[in-house]
Fold:
Amino acid sequence: MSHERAGKLLVVNLHYAPFSFGGGTVVAEALAERLHSEHGWQVTVLTALRDYNLPEYTVRRYAIKGVDVIGVVINSDPDYRTEYDNPRFNQVARQLLAQLRPDVCHLHAVQGLGVSWLDSVAAVGSRLAVTLHDCWWLCDQQFMINTDGNYCNQSAVSHDQCRYCTAAFPEFMSRDSSLRSALDKADLLLYPSDFHRTLHVDSGLDDARSLVHKNGINFPGPNYPTIRQALQERRDHTVFGFTGGPGPIKGAPFIMRAFQDTAITNYVLKVVDSAQNLGTSWQSSKDWKGKVRVDFVPAYSQESMDDFFAQIDVLLFPSQWKESFGLTVREALARNVWVIATDCGAPVEDIVDGENGSIIPFDGSHHKLRSAIENAAARDWTDYVNPYKEQLQSFDQQAGELHQLFVEQMQTIT
Amino acid sequence: MKFLEQRGLTWAGALRLVQHNIRDAGLRVTLKKAIAQLGRTDVDFDIDRYEKWFERHITDPCSAGNALFEQASVVIVGALDIPQCKKYRVMQKAEYFANHEIQCSYSEYRDLTRAFSLMQLASVVIFYRIPAGPHAEALVAEAQRLGLKMYYDIDDPIFDDQTYRANKNLEALSDRERESLLAEIPGYHQLMERVGRVIVSTSGMRELAASSLGPETEIVIWPNLIDSATRSAFDQLPSTADSHIDEVCLGYFSGSRAHDHDLELIAPVLAHLLDKFPQLQLRLGGYTQLPGVLLPYQERIEVIGFMSYRAYLENLRAVDINLVPLLVDRFNACKSGIRYLEASLCAVPTVASAVGQFTEMIVHGETGFLCATEQEWQDELEVMLLDIGLRRRLGEAAQRQVLERYQLHSEDFLPLKEVAAHVA
Structure:
């Protein structure tokens, strides 16, 4: 780490290592670590901790992989308003900003942490960048899933439709105005895909400050092909994997219905219990009940990811909302795992239908999923290699881009 | 409910905690722990679990607080149960830093939840008068983990066995109280050496600390001063007319129980003066026992017990001469001049024993009198009793001096600027 110090960066995300959870957190961690180790930033992370041993809103500071972390204990689930305006978190955030005086403040997912404290960012002379990982900024359901469980499928968010979806429209409007005015304070609005940027700009966010900043992934380690081959030789059936957890958003009920309807039996369905990374479990969900046999596998980390993907032939990604990126899809594609995905926005940007995956219609039905599963079960996956790996971006490339963006931002400070 | 509250838990949180414990450690261990918790009433925070969390998940060292934060931030963790100590040693620092836009917060040391939480965003921690023990251990370890600049602030020679034993007023305490105080001395001493940087209140304290702690320990003086709360309380006192030109009132106000010997010191002088001047009154405030020689003059002696700070200032302002007799010994050589500062703010002239900080603050014959012997006490008091003009001149000069030099706001008070710059 012989770099000159590039600047002081404050990263804010709802989760952080060692309690990593979700694709957005993987990205936030990967970027924070690389900006520190490869580009000379002094990186501090502000995050929430769940620790039932500690009283609410106590603070603890630690360091992990060269990154200093300030964790604020938030054990209770936030109510509607606290999710975007959390007075007790504001206090910590404002104090930290005043003491840290960062050059750049970079927000990822902040639901539950709130945004009212962002008025202090410019006050301490910092630039503000926000990466919009999902639709939380526009939609109080976060993923644009209607109360009936279906994706609302607006190509530009219209309050005329939201009025009929949200539980309380006046509160929705307060939320919307708070979040939009928070985003007005940002110098950079970053989106992980072109699809996601278009949705937000068409929904009224500023075109000029909106940039696509495509997510990277961790590529497999050098031993991956050997491990995968050894495992494949030992099995005579297709192994399907699913990482999305229970609930309709990521498509778990569709998977269960598809397997219930099919006559094939020469398969294994592995479901990752990712909630273990948060100290809980998904296994007891009623979504897994039924005739279909589910093999639960422990949550994996970025370090143990290769071991998981080496075990499976096909990743199921029947997402029922339009994804902003689809980290798992890229991680699978990079590891020669075939992907069956709905036509769900950004994830399919790296899938060539029939060549490295199957794109099924976004039609709310499980029938096309079933036939894609049946086709995949009939195929011999030995020696399969994804021919389009080169178009995937690494975290190193993504961090390099972000470094450039932040350096440019700092040069505009007068 | 109180059980959960003390531990900062909700019902749901407690339930989840139990679930997690059962999963991690099994039912038997969980039950044992729960029973142990039920038996604890003193602790609101489980240090062991906190530390185990770190052992389990985090192995990287933290950045030092002052390397991480651009702006210094001070947290004072101390024994806040004695109001006067809190005022002079904790709140005055908090006020000073706030006036200079330095973040400063404070916590009672037994409230580890709060103290730990505040330390996380600090670059400097000042431990004020915390005794050695499990709380101190946990606090120092956490400050070290966070790479904080540590100070130990102390305003009494409770870390030096010889000096502390020299305090005659200890005799006023019960054997048990005395023994328990004396037994704590080595703990304080070790803690101060371990912390490595010491803040004291007076130059007498600095000399003692320097000789007691050895050369590795850095020692700085942060004096006791007139703060804005004192100023405000003084400014709010009702105005008075000089109603008692014929009468002269001497005042003696003691802060704690440990001052009986001090009053004994001048009791014969007071008896003599009460005898000689029939218009002379004596007002005793705080914890006092009337010395036997004064019993014949009880009609002219007003004994007031402990009172509010404002009532204290009002009583102080109403006397004509403020008496601060102190045994001249190693213990009192460490004493700060608070009682001179407060009287001077009220424009009341002080006659004090020539010991401790009084010898630095009082300009003999100009802003008060310093006395080393009984004879000197008698002579100076007689002169003052007979000369109302002298009393006024001394009182006004003392007030000017204090307002100019010994206010927290006094911008030219360089020692404070220097020590504050040293700290944060």
Remarks:
- Confidence is low (pLDDT under 50) at residues 39-45 of chain B.
- The interface with chain A takes residues 7-10, 12-14, 16-17, 20, 45-46, 49-50, 53-54, 57-58, 60-63, 68-73, 103, 113-114, 116-118, 120-121, 123, 146 of chain B (CB under 8 Å).
